[in-house]
Amino acid sequence: MTIQRIERKKIWQEVADKIQSLIISGYWKKGDRLPGEIQLAKEFGVSRSTLREAIRQLSSMGLVQVRHGEGTFVWYPDVEEFLNPLMPRLMTDREDVTAIMEARSMVEVETARLAAQRRSQGELERLQEYYQKMVAAADDRKRFAKTDHTFHKQIALSTHNPVIIKIYEAVEVFFVSQQLQIVDYQGAVQRGISDHAEILEAIAAGDHLEAARAMRSHMKHTQRAIAESHERLVGREAGETAP
Description:
By secondary structure, the protein is mainly alpha-helical. It has 2 domains: 11-74, Arc Repressor Mutant, subunit A (Orthogonal Bundle); 81-241, Four Helix Bundle (Hemerythrin (Met), subunit A), CATH 1.20.120. 72% of the residues lie in helices and 3% in strands. Strands 1-2 form a two-stranded antiparallel sheet. A hairpin with a 3-residue loop joins strand 1 and strand 2 (71-74).
């Protein structure tokens, strides 16, 4: 082992890192226009040339777009833009779906545990609002599935952990369309309402162990529904191809 010389970061790199952190944390969201060059340079306490170099770095990373005459905007591809081409295969390949569901379960259970410990009062109120919308959408399966998705996303946001949020988004996107299928199963909506009531109650109480247990139970119900869906699909395909 040899001692490696420690390289000092250039100032523009530090500025780029700070802007990137602000974007990841949600301070600036996709589509937001960054403050003007003069203002931003003043806020960071750097020269305009240093700021321009930082912006060039972020632009090359795909985190911002520089539109001449308009300004600099936060802009990056959505996770779906990378993953959508894989959706058809992943929705029909049981091994892939099972593997992704296992990964999702690990993420979802941990998000519920952390959300119970870290959620703010405002975040709890949003969860309660989304749950009430789920109950109100019991007769509208498509709206129910979309509100279900929003409920889970809010739990992830309530962890206040940007890495967990990104991991959640990368795993969860595979199931957006599949949720629309799962809610068509007999009893799926009522089971979902019951499961989410338990999760919400635990998060409201700040009981991280119960929140993790309730989410784990909900994930098992979802895994079972996915397995049954795949078996039905395989059965139909076998029937259609039988001589």
